[in-house]
């Protein structure tokens, strides 16, 4: 091939040789620093996709611990499906929620639990969290 003629198989370096050498040097320097400062430490295999643990779907809800007043709690669990024992799932294995918000009938006390009060909600008498009101003198209620 003569000088100055175009050849489609010709391969060139985009960077001049000195810059290419310096760029490769920085890559190897960073690798050396990584291995030097992490020598003897175990590699976190859990970040590799095929080793990541995953959650199963949640199971069914348990029965509510109370029959009324929003005093009860129910929960459901899920399982961490581990591919390696040392790789844990991120998040919680249990979901909980308040249940049975219907108002307790006298003589059961309290009628409602926590910050819940008897109220009509969508035409049903139940235990609800009431909105906060700011009372300002000589003005109407604001919430």
Automatic annotation (TrEMBL):
Any Pfam family hit: TSP_1
InterPro entries registered for this protein in UniProt: TSP1_rpt, TSP1_rpt_sf
Entries under SUPFAM superfamilies matching the protein: TSP-1 type 1 repeat (SSF82895)
Identification of the protein by name: Uncharacterized protein
